[in-house]
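Entry:
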Amino acid sequence: MSWWQKLKLDPFLMIMICVVTLATLLPAQGDIKVLFQYLTTGAIALLFFLHGAKLSREAILAGLGHWRLHLTVFASTFILFPILGLGLQVIVPEWMSPTVYMGFLYLCALPATVQSAIAFTSVAGGNVAAAICSASASSILGVFLSPLLVGFLMQTQGSASDFDTAGAIQSILLQLMVPFIIGHLSRPLIGRWVDNHKKLVNRTDRSSILLVVYVAFSEAVVEGIWHKIDGWSLLTITVVSCILLAIVIFVNMYSARLLGFNKKDEITIVFCGSKKSLANGVPMANVLFPAVTVGVMLLPLMIFHQIQLMVCAVLAQRYANQTKKAEKKERI
């Protein structure tokens, strides 16, 4: 086992940190900045086009009947998280700056992950078909719900003047949803190629995200992000992310048991209902917020993303061991 696996660090996040460092040392400015902005717009469109092309209708139909599970996951993603996000206001501004708090509100409004939620559900021995359906539906709904939630959450904090909900939805539809729909409608033509070249598609996805991160942090560096975000702020983001994730996992775990779900469904609810999508969050932030604020808004999401991967990797292994023990008992 490599030291990456022992530490359970996400290599992609390490590359992202290198990109942030590059943006800090060599931010895109002038004509280069304009060129990268055009590239970013195209990369985001390509990203969601491929998301649409990857979405299998058969996978969705396989899990549609499990509506109670899906409602539980959606409640966690789009109700529980925002409520907890609003609750964080009690530590502002004594422990958390208002700027960082807005980043957490944005995090709480995002949809769930797709790939990692399904992967962890599979490793833990959960209901994979239902996980595919829930995660995919959450990603699609998030394109509509996340801008509305962001607008609502910021309005509760008196920041509605900084956020145009109607304009955000229009931008989301044009830059994200239209490419997504075109990609999905193109699946009969390119679906087989996409399925046979998953590594290439994933690299394209990640390259698009890295490009958005570089442009966002270049703008943020020029505007003095590292004078606004100090070591204390980074520590606060890390601690709050751990607490937030722990609460959500605990609530999902015991809600699943109280509602009478079996162990496989509990696993699916825990992993699909406790994760937030970096893949959707990065390009969406680029569409929703002014360029000067995107870098700061993404910091809580980037840190939370790494923490959720580390925690869920350990939790998935624990569930897998429990499943193996239960199977052994049944054989005996």
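Residues 192 and 278 are 26 Å apart (CA to CA).
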